[in-house]
Amino acid sequence: MSNTNLKKLAEELGLSISSVSKALRDSYEISAETKKRVLAMAEKMNYQPNPFASSLRRKKSVTIAVVIPEIANNFFALALDGIQMVAQQKGYHLLTYLTHEDYKNEEATIRHLQGGRVDGVLISLCRDTESIHHLVSLHETGIPMVFFDRVPEQMDCPTVTTDDYESGFKATEHLINAGCKKIACLSLSNYLSITHKRMKGYEDALKKHAIKLDPKLVIQCNNDNENNLNLIKNMLSAKKDRPDGIFATVEKLAISTYYVCNDIKLKIPQQIKIISFSNLRTASLLSPSLSTITQPAFEIGKESASLLFRMIEKKTFGNRIDKIVLKSSLIERNSSK
Amino acid sequence: MSNTNLKKLAEELGLSISSVSKALRDSYEISAETKKRVLAMAEKMNYQPNPFASSLRRKKSVTIAVVIPEIANNFFALALDGIQMVAQQKGYHLLTYLTHEDYKNEEATIRHLQGGRVDGVLISLCRDTESIHHLVSLHETGIPMVFFDRVPEQMDCPTVTTDDYESGFKATEHLINAGCKKIACLSLSNYLSITHKRMKGYEDALKKHAIKLDPKLVIQCNNDNENNLNLIKNMLSAKKDRPDGIFATVEKLAISTYYVCNDIKLKIPQQIKIISFSNLRTASLLSPSLSTITQPAFEIGKESASLLFRMIEKKTFGNRIDKIVLKSSLIERNSSK
DNA sequence: ATTGGCTACGAAAAGGTTTTCGTAGAATAA
DNA sequence: TTATTCTACGAAAACCTTTTCGTAGCCAAT
């Protein structure tokens, strides 16, 4: 154990603990010579400050938390990458929590964070987060919080999102322009505002092109892959009213659709066209290549973290609530040709 | 801020701080009635213990660190998922560090961890980690450490790996059996033991089938995607001595190879067959579907974390050094048909 | 000659929890 | 009755760092 602490350093140097501390923090109260001696000895004895003593005293953990539904997910992996980059640059540590799309986990995690373990929190909600009392409760402690992508609708909190309504609209219109008449929508959640917005875009695009929305074509999926495969398979196996286009609001549902189409020999894009929200790096290598709405996931992470640090660093926290909206891009590929 | 601490609780209850502390920790010294009163008041005042004071006093952070090269990588994302699962189950927090394949970052991170911020460390080395002095230094502090997948060769430390030699051998033999005569090997690092092992398998498979190893077909890639694309393109564009098979030791190099083949109109698998280490969930949906050696990434994470917790919990840390080896599976698909 | 200011440092408190060591009172044993 | 043992709690130290408040000595200004 690296057992050198200020006390031992001070003894070795014939100084007081406080002087050593000040020297190490480069205080003006300490002479240049003494500072040099202290630094040298600290180096020699491999002094590492005790982070807990420091945090206890300064009421600052130099740590932020990120709470996301899952990590084996291209979007969140990229977002975390962006977050980590900013955190590292700021010299902050990053505590990572996964809710696995389970509200209980989210609640427990948020409650834990009330203890003051971190200086700020980045959150993307899980699919079945309906009540937000835990978030409100955390917010009331005064800790800086930023939501990204999956944000709560009813809270007055800074958020970083993408243009979900427009993206949903464009994606649907893109399928309509490609000739689709019956477009299904695959959704992951009833509660999330991103789902609402994406689906509102879907609805409005249908309306604009005078296509009646068929509720049977709006599929509520969940986090159980088997179940989703069955739902999709049932829909695509139907003799009549089989859709000729699919708008998947999340990547994994597009993947599932590909599997189902392979399974039941449905030709993409001849028999059914697909477009999906996705950050898959291999989208263009799929068979057929997948048309995507691609969110700037890395930038979302970067922006969220930057915003959070602005809040952390600003003593007088601004009364203006930041709502940053980035743009996704629609990339046409063969699945919707 | 949740400003209730033991002191305030004690005042409110007319008890001493120590009694409240003991009551909350369910000490035998406190009567059942008093405990009930304390718990009720703690609940009422929304008491959250200060983690830093606790850590400082108990010399225990209830936190582990995981140090990985990158997170936007299917293997590491899955491994982290496994790690997080075990950590959460144990009630531990997870500090995540990304080195971005940069040795300087790895060094700095490891040095930071010497401060005692965590109770244990999980590490997968970055591609250019040659010197291990920083790891030795951390190890000397006595902190439990477990390496996974990318492990150092010269250290006496617990590791969790896969059967890399056998996998490299099988992959190469698979290509040979598919008719390949000139098999290239794409490697990411000169230093990592997993690369050495995978390539030794490659060499031995060639040897077994009396194929001479052509050093020009062993490509050292790096972390620069452009560069890798060029290296691969150059090799595949050659008039003579163009390989008819490719063994990619990491997923991203297989992806790059797919892009190059698309670019220069080289037909997979007719003109060139490919097999790669990969945890891509869409491997079977690629065009053509990609033959893979798939590591049990999630299990690697789970095993590593479990092993680490055994070390953390065992006061008398065992003198036996665990070296866990899991099996990868070779999945034949169309890219090597 | 007094005051004020500066430099360079030290003593001590504060931060919140855990743990060790008491101890007062009651109950039991001798 | 006296000695011993529990029971239930409190005082205080310890964990290590940071920060506030001194202060001794020296120089410059009034």
SS-derived structural category of chain A: alpha/beta
Q: What is the total number of structural domains of chain A?
A: 3
Helix/strand order of chain A: HHHHEHEHEHEEHEHEHEHEEHEE
Shape designation of chain A:
elongated
Largest sheet of chain A: 6 strands, parallel
Provide the β-strand percentage band of chain A.
Answer: 15-25%
The strands making up the biggest β-sheet of chain A line up spatially as 2-1-3-4-5-11
Tell me how many strands of chain A there are: 12
Helical residues, percent of chain A: 40-55%
The CATH architecture name of the largest domain in chain A reads 3-Layer(aba) Sandwich
SS summary, helix count of chain A: 12
Examine the coordinates and then state which fold CATH places here, giving the name of the CATH topology of the largest domain in chain A.
Rossmann fold
Cα separation of the termini of chain A:
63 Å
Oligomer: homodimer
In the CATH hierarchy, what is the superfamily of the largest domain in chain A? Response regulator
- pLDDT below 50 for ≥5 consecutive residues: which ranges of chain A? none
Brief account:
The structure is a homodimer of 337-residue chains. With 337 residues, chain A is α/β, with parallel strands linked by helices.
Structural summary, described in words:
2 copies of one chain form a homodimer. Chain A contains 12 helices and 12 strands. Chain A is α/β, with parallel strands linked by helices and 337 residues long. A 6-stranded parallel β-sheet of chain A has the order 2-1-3-4-5-11, sandwiched between helices. In chain A, strands 7-6-8-9-10-12 form a 6-stranded mixed β-sheet. In chain A, helix 11 links the parallel strand 8 and strand 9. In chain A, 48% of the residues are buried. Chain A binds a DNA duplex (30 and 30 nucleotides) through helix 2 and helix 4.
